[in-house]
Model the fold of this input.
Amino acid sequence: MHLPPQCFYRMNPQLMREWADFTTEAVEGGGMTLSLSGPLTVSSIGIVDRRLRALDAPLARIDLSAVTEIDTVGAWTAWRLSEEHGAEIVGASDQAQRLISALRDCGVAGDIVPPRHDLVRRVPEAVGELVVGWGRGTVGVTAFLGAILVSVWYLIRNPRKMRMKAVVRQLELVGVSALGIIGLMSFLVGIVIAQQGAVQLRQFGAEIYTINLTGRLSMRELGVLMTAIMVAGRSGSAFAAQIGTMKLTEEVDAMRTIGVSPVEALIIPRVLAAVVMMPLLGFYAAAVSIIGGAFLAMFTLEIPFFTFLSRIQEVVPIHDVWVGMVKAPFFGLIIALSGCYQGMQVKANAEEVGLRTTMAVVQAIFMVIVLDAFFAVFFTNVGWG
Amino acid sequence: MTARQDITNAVEGAALGEVAAHFAGPHPIVVEGLVNRFGDHVIHENLSLTVNRGEILGVVGGSGTGKSVLMRSIIGLQIPQAGSIEVLGRSITGDGDEGDVDIRSRWGVLFQGGALFSTLTVAENVEVPLKEFYPEIEDELRHEIARYKVMLSGLPAEAASKYPSELSGGMRKRAGLARALSLDPELLFLDEPTAGLDPIGAAAFDRLTKELQETLGLTVFLITHDLDTLYEICDRVAVIAEKQVIAVGTIPELLATDHPWIQDYFNGPRGRAAQNSQERGRAVKADQAVKADQAVYSDQTGTAASADDASGTMDNPAGGEA
Done:
């Protein structure tokens, strides 16, 4: 038995939707009459639209008299067909006529997205933009550094202009509130160094050198480096996102018009906070990671906790501490500068805030590691090996 | 007819099931006993409001009286502490038994700042609701819909491919309107559509709203501070004060009440100016009609018309030409 399709739709409530339909009929003198029926609205036009686009016979007349409901999408479809085929529309209700006349001036020309060039043109264009972008970026960074130096010089001559409140706030955000996470991270790093070191050194029966390994590595390299990565992720990204959002909401422009220099109000406090806090955080991280190592040594190597700590004093030369402390402010400077610079570059839309924030963090971490490599070579050559 | 069956299957496979039917009742929005509180701060206390089908309802009230909160409650962005809200015959505040039919495809909302998606072009913005609710519509038709909606909102065709950041404030509002109209809604919510527009742009936007309302048979819920908008296009005006809707009616009806805020609002200097400009607008239209008639029959029109002009400007404190 053949059932009409409606029977199946009833059973499946998911498909219960009344679709528009049409029939065609040849008329004398060539062409066809297209009779549209049912509701001709945005929710019911899906099927009819695809079938109509597949229709190749020329239409002479479009009959809308069986249409129960019409909206602009239906009116648009009828009008487009009549334009394409040179057909006349008959049987249109008042509503349909009103809609069609309203749409008549809304021609179909124009792009949805800005025109896209073909590959041959797009690739050189992209490369060119990249190169010019690098050039501009270099100029931009130089100008940015210049602006900061000018502001610093100005603030040195007029120390009263320093925004102490903002500086203290940033010191808190960059430093104090990072203590917890950096402490935990360093403690675990200390445990890992000590544990891995102990396993390797045991092969030579030299477990006792685990203390040297943990102490020197923490003080010289890992304490500061891990802290820099954490600060870049925590504060560098926050700088970029904050300043970027302020750019979008025109707060930065508002500052300029009031006579407040954004460099003095926004950037100097952040840079200062990062430069001051990085050595402190780096030293704290190194200390905590040594404690982590001491803990592990206590449990697995049976070196008493305080013996470990007093050995540290003997085996870690003081210049290792200086190596870490000299590097730290430079890392802080790089993190703050790239965060603030990327933030100030935000224009146009919310997506760019995200892009610039990512860029700030990636750049900061990359530059920190490059600089760290330079420092490693440098300090070894000056005899602080 | 296998091709036809294929198309039917493809479309029905892509479609999202049932859609909300056209609303036939007399009141698309019914708010009863609405209570909105933020902490201790009471915004609405037992607020009730009924919107008639096919009208433009202007909602006015001082800053901070909760006009936007009322709109957000009606469109389901703000969950009220108490009260019931029915939109197009369906409860917004209920537990969502009828959740299978998405009422959001039957309304369009224009937010104050336009709230366009900044990473999409204007046309793509218009396409977002279409893609969301009617995925069965093919790209070609969807692009066409986006283009004519952009034009219908009074934007030039080139604006379709522009990003919101490349548009002026007035164009952004129109683009927002195009997106609000994307699904051919029955109900349109406008939050201060003319705020921040120049007077010419604001008047044009008012005309556009009225034209679209008439052509598309919309019911419009319009929050505004703009007295010209109220006089020009609103059928009724609801006044929010003292945490409630204190009066709803046409402007003459409201003027007849003796509530001090309403009197201050409509009889303040700005209210008077708006009222006069509306009367003047009517007088000019009538005047032009008279002139056209007279030009046919008489050559003494010049003097008669200038006398009319003079009388027309007499009661116009704002000055300017009639």
Remarks:
- The first strand of chain B starts at residue 29 and ends at 38.
